[in-house]
Amino acid sequence: MVDWSKSGMKKARAKSRDRSATCPVCGRRRNVDQQKKLRATEAIWFKREAAYYEAGSPFYPLVDGMRGLAISGQREWFWACDGCIRGRRALTANITKQVLGLGTPFAAYVDRPFRCSDCDTPSVFTASEQQHWYETLGFLIWVYPNQCAPCRAKRRRKRRANRALAEALAGLDTRDPTQLEAVARLYDEIGAAAKATVYRSRAKNRRALSK
Ligand SMILES: [Zn+2]
Ligand SMILES: [Zn+2]
Questions:
Q1: Which ligand lies nearest to the CA atom of residue 89 in the structure?
Q2: pTM of the predicted structure, to 2 decimals
Q3: Burial letters for 17-43: b for 16+ Cβ neighbours within 10 Å, e otherwise?
Q4: Which ligand is nearest to the CA of 110?
Q5: What are the tens digits of pLDDT across the range 9-66?
Q6: What distance in Å separates the CA atoms of residue 205 and residue 182, rounded to the nearest whole number?
Q7: N-term to C-term CA, the chain
Q8: Ion ligand 2: protein residues whose beta carbon lies under 5 Å
Q9: Domain ranges within the chain, ordered by starting residue
Q10: Can you point out the beta strands (E) in 19-111?
Q11: I need a labelling partner for 71 at 20 to 30 A (CA). Which of 98, 152, 173, 189 fits?
């Protein structure tokens, strides 16, 4: 309901002029127009985006795109107030090293808590991990982890084991107990215990036969 009373209108006007947003690190209300790092990143982004689209296109960037997002509170985690960056509570980000796609760039990296989708443990996507992902490894800026670091390592090991298993099976000499044991170990690594047992007993039989 719109409050049409004089004081209600005054409040609404004040709210629409309110240029403050809550810093995701210190939790303080900050005037976004006074945040130098946010504005500098936004200016580079605007220049870059504006070069791609014609004025009037629905994709044409908003002049205060990043500040507008911060004010709306729709997305956190992509900025921090200048005080937090100076105080090293947030890492300063370099937009020129980020692969943007259609995402919003990072003006700063801040620790992002999340819950691992594999083991359900609370975890943190740290500011320095983000900097490494987005500025060194070249990951798209909207990519982020769903699993904690140990679960990611486990998934990587499993992927590697799957590939190694495919190779081992393709060139497998079923008379060679050493090869059969290697296959059993790889089945263990991908969590196929029943298969591992089968190959282990085949290896044992082969060893018995060769004696
Ligand atoms: Zn702050
Ligand atoms: Zn996990």
A1: 1
A2: 0.73
A3: eeeebebbbeeeebebeebebbbebbe
A4: 1
A5: 777 776 667 899 999 999 999 999 999 999 999 999 988 887 778 777 777 777 678 9
A6: 15
A7: 89
A8: 116, 118-119, 148, 151
A9: 19-147, 151-210
A10: 20-22, 29-31, 91-92, 108-109
A11: 98
Which residue type is seen at 204? K
Q: Which residue has the tokens 């107030």?
A: 81
**In this structure, are residues 177 and 209 in contact, taking their beta carbons and an 8 Å threshold?**
no
Among residues 146, 209, 148, 136, which one has the least CA distance to residue 174? Answer: 209
Scored b (16 or more CB within 10 A) or e, 197-207 reads: eebbebbeebe
Q: How far is the CA of 79 from the centre of ligand 1 (A)?
A: 9
The Cα 64–Cα 96 span in angstroms is 19
Please choose, from the candidates 61, 67, 65, 2, the residue with its C-alpha nearest in 3D space to the C-alpha of residue 30.
67
Q: Which residues pair with 29 in a beta bridge?
A: 22
Helix (H) / strand (E) containing 178: helix 177-189
